[in-house]
Amino acid sequence: MRDDDIVISTRSKHGTTWTQMICALLVFQTPDLPAPLPELSPWLDWTIAPVDEVHAKLAAQDHRRFIKTHTPLDGLPIHPAARYIVVARHPLDAAVSLYHQGSNLIRERIAELTGVPVPEAKRNRPSLHDWVVGWTRAQNDPREHLDMLPGVMAHLGDAWARREEPNLLLVHYADLSADLEGEMRRIAAYLDIDVPESRWPALVKAASFAEMKANAEHRAPDPKGLMRSKDAFFRRGTSGAAAELL
């Protein structure tokens, strides 16, 4: 690892891509990024891509790196000089997003790349309501099923227990939604990045949900063609979907 590395550790559908985009805007200080977001911020533990390929991409980067991972902090090397960001979201809202993301994935393409057949449970899915209720009741091993409720709570609980550590910043999806500029400024301060006042309006606009959805082709994490629609990846961008459902 490098001393100035930024590690973004999240559960799926907790604002990962949003936080990557914020870091990209702060690092490059322009909405016109030099490459698609997944290239600028490789997914460290993505099982679809060969490990050596991911490591080579990271090693070749000469800008300040901001690395995506879905591994909890207790599974990562903690470099004292690096900066870590953990993003939380209401678990039920994340579950709703997970369900919709599941419908957007091309399971056959995933099977082709991994060599693992599509499970029958993925072929015949229950309704959104039934799936979310089942998700809340599942008693899975949090280390084996990281995106089920026990895994989500283990990831976030471990981060919360470390909240006083100087190289860890906790961010919440609802706060990003309520005060994007304020949260971007807080993240910039934590990362020791100075942004001229004149640049803030354009950077905040570029990090908005509307702008990210409009540029989904270059923002969605899909370099291997696993999604039916990159636009659908940015489905809603708000909180409260689970409350409406349940």
UniProtKB/TrEMBL annotation:
Q: Which UniProt keywords apply?
A: Transferase
Q: Which Gene3D superfamilies match?
A: P-loop containing nucleotide triphosphate hydrolases
Pfam families from the UniProt entry: Sulfotransfer_1
Q: Does the keyword Oxidoreductase apply?
A: no
Question: Which molecular function terms from Gene Ontology are attached?
Answer: sulfotransferase activity
Sulfotransferase domain residues are 3-240
Q: Does the keyword Cytoplasm apply?
A: no
| Family annotation (SUPFAM superfamilies) | P-loop containing nucleoside triphosphate hydrolases (SSF52540)
Look up the domain of life of the source: Bacteria
Question: Which family, according to the similarity comment?
Answer: Belongs to the sulfotransferase 1 family.
What is the name attached to this protein's record?
A: Sulfotransferase domain-containing protein
Which organism does this sequence originate in?
A: Glycomyces artemisiae
